Amino acid sequence: MQFRPPTPKLRPKRFVLGITGASGAWYAQRLLEQLLLTGAEVHLVVSDYGKRLLFDESGIKEVSLESLVPTLHADDYRSQLVLHPHKDVGAVIASGSFLHDGMVILPCSSTSLGAIATGSGSNLLTRAAMVTLKERRPLIVCHRETPLNLVDIRNYETLTLAGAIICPTNPGFYLLPESIDEIVDFQVGKVLDLLKVEHTLNTRWENSKRRPDAGGDEVRA
Fold first, then answer.
1. H helix or E strand, kind and range, residue 194
2. Which residues pair with 19 in a beta bridge?
3. Cβ 27 vs Cβ 107: under 8 Å
4. What dotted CATH number matches 14-174?
5. How far apart, in whole angstroms, are the C-alpha atoms of residue 168 and residue 132?
6. Three-state DSSP class for residue 82
7. Where are the domains of the chain?
8. pTM, whole model, 2 decimals?
9. CA atoms within 13 A on the CB side of 84
């Protein structure tokens, strides 16, 4: 009788999302929503200052699926979201043997940026980011700060050389957004593109209202 190895069970796409204390809670909430809608499994870790951010900008008192993404019916998506305590450096996402398809830190503060760049894994968020780098998996760092000082710039360089993608929260305006939601979607769509996740958010230049073939002047940000 010929031996046949077992067929591996295909897992859904799996992503790690980190939220720190930089401004931009709406970006993180929209990204989480979009990832869950694709059927992906999302492992979420929020820093202490990230929790304050969520409260200050979105009125979120407790990190939960219901509070983070009120647009979704929680019971339909609860099994896809895994919440990890920020101080639990022994959580599964801190291990290189834990397979995932990319980690996003959105928004990323300068403090977390510097900690990752210097190899400081004193909390779960930065530890998971370091593991993502060493395993050569996508790490997308959405830094939210301006202007930049030399420390930030050098941390950008260090992380880029280590394999991370620096994706600052710099929205484009060539699609002529008419609401904050459209500005948020532009940034979130960029992140989804980097994760190779298909989406329907309006981020494409070909959708510009001022395309030359649409009768307007060619203006592009």
1. helix 180-194
2. 46
3. yes
4. 3.40.50.1950
5. 19
6. strand
7. 14-174
8. 0.90
9. 24
